[in-house]
Design goal:
Blueprint lengths: L3 E9 L2 H6 L4 E5 L8 E2 L11 E4 L3 E5 L5 E6 L5 E4 L7 E9 L2 E6 L5 E5 L4 E5 L8 E2 L16 E3 L28 E5 L7 E5 L56 E7 L5 E4 L14 E7 L2 E12 L7 E9 L4 H5 L6 E6 L3 E6 L6 E7 L5 E6 L5 E6 L4 E6 L10 E9 L1
Antiparallel strand pairs: 1-2, 1-4, 2-3, 4-5, 5-6, 7-8, 7-13, 8-9, 9-10, 10-11, 11-12, 14-15, 16-17, 16-19, 18-19, 18-20, 21-22, 23-26, 23-27, 24-25
């Protein structure tokens, strides 16, 4: 069995705590698959204790013998990799809590990944609390960063090492220094003349070179120069003065519409204009007291819709709250009644309230016990109904009926009473 360094890990008695704890333990072993044994020492003699160990991305369930008996991904990992952004590309690690949510810091850039409660979305910015430079979905309720995968993904950034081919620039010079056989003649002046011939061995013996010469014929074509005559036109006009460029300062409007649904009659309104409330964009599924085409009403913001040309004039006056909390009913009191005065022999004053639309709800008791529920009349009055065990009924209400029983359900049938 090989005894490899498997990296840094944290340890805790439950998976979530181990995923968010400091990486302070080094584990050793042959691998991190189910059935492998992990150790606390580099010679693999001391098995890891009964616990959960995490590398900040995955968590491993270790039994009393040090054997991995299960593994899963962290609900919210410690590391995120940001890519495809020249300013924020980096590995971001869990650093602490900001404004009630986890935040992460770039290991190289020092920039921040955090949840902006003002913009209700996960942000990338140079400082904690700064406006978002990059951001995830608007109205996010995720406890972990939920950027698009093209911007950030779970884990540590993978670095790419570029290898240069050593043969790409390889060059050499071969020098063959072979001596050919030579003959040396020595003449000695003596009573007799002696001639000595010394034959030196050929150092190139047994060696050969094969050389191939290739002859290339190059044909050069000379193009005769072309004479071009350029005629200059003189215009008898003189221009002088200065040019003024106006800076474009308008808000760019996207090619989509914002849809608002009337709380009382279900009519949808669309607008392509920039709609703000207290300087911020409206929240989806929130109820607003608004003035639409000159009339006061209560509407729910349904979101953005493509390929719809919005022509309604929408002005948001007050944010009431989430639709599921019955905010349509709470908004009703904001609407000022329309007063019509008719002059005849006597003066008659007629007060007209906005039309009230009651939705048909299918309510059901999923328990054997009697359950009470509340529903809402047009004038805002709360009425109480009851259901015997495992029974159901249709009820008309301007907003969703409610009950304290967890076994009570109310479903919008899409019908008007």
């Amino acid at each position: 069995m090989s005894c490899n360094n498997l990296g840094l890990f944290s340890s805790a008695s439950d998976p979530n705590s181990s995923c968010g704890s400091t990486l302070s333990f080094t584990l050793y072993g042959s691998g991190l698959t189910v059935g492998d044994i992990v150790y606390l020492d580099s010679i693999c003699s001391s098995p890891a204790l009964l616990s959960y160990y995490s590398d900040g991305i995955d968590v491993y369930d270790i039994d009393g013998s040090g054997t991995i008996i299960g593994s899963s991904g962290c609900t919210c990992p410690q590391f995120f990799c940001v890519e495809n952004d020249t300013n924020y590309d980096d590995t971001y690690q869990l650093a602490g809590i900001y404004d009630g949510e986890s935040y992460f810091t770039g290991q190289t850039t020092g920039y921040f990944m955090f949840y902006s409660t003002g913009e209700t979305r996960w942000c990338l910015a140079q400082n904690l609390g700064d406006p978002c430079d990059q951001f995830g979905p608007f109205g996010s309720t995720s406890d972990c960063p939920d950027f698009d995968d093209t911007v950030a993904y779970t884990g540590i950034c993978v670095t790419t090492t570029t290898t240069v081919d050593p043969c790409a620039t390889f060059d050499f010079s071969a020098i063959f220094d072979c001596l050919v056989p030579t003959t040396t003649t020595t003449t000695t002046a003596a009573p007799t003349t002696t001639t000595t011939t010394t034959v030196l061995p050929n150092p190139c013996s047994g060696k050969s070179i094969t050389a191939i010469a290739v002859t290339y014929t190059t044909t050069t074509t000379t193009i005769a120069p072309t004479t071009t005559t350029t005629t200059t036109i003189n215009y008898p006009c003189n221009f002088s003065g200065e040019v003024i460029f106006n800076t474009f300062t308008e808000v760019i409007q996207c090619a989509n519409s914002k849809r608002f649904s009337d709380c009382f009659n279900g009519v949808d309104y669309y607008t392509s204009d920039l709609v703000l409330i207290s300087g911020n964009t409206p929240l989806e599924n929130y109820v607003y007291f608004a003035e639409i085409n000159g009339q006061q009403t209560c509407v729910t913001f349904e979101g953005l819709f493509e390929n719809i040309s919005g022509v309604d004039t929408v002005v948001l006056l007050t944010e009431i709250g989430s639709r599921v909390d019955g905010s349509c009913l709470a908004c009703f009191s904001n609407i000022q009644p329309t007063t019509t005065t008719t002059s005849t022999s006597t003066t008659t004053t007629t007060t007209t309230l906005p039309p009230c639309i009651l939705t048909r709800w299918y309510v059901e008791n999923n328990s054997p016990s009697f359950v009470k529920y509340d529903y809402y009349e047009c004038d805002g009055t709360v009425s109480t109904g009851g259901l015997n065990g495992y029974t159901s009924v249709y009820v008309c209400s301007i907003t969703i009926p409610t009950s304290t029983s967890p076994n009570f359900t109310a479903t919008d049938t899409g019908a008007i009473c």
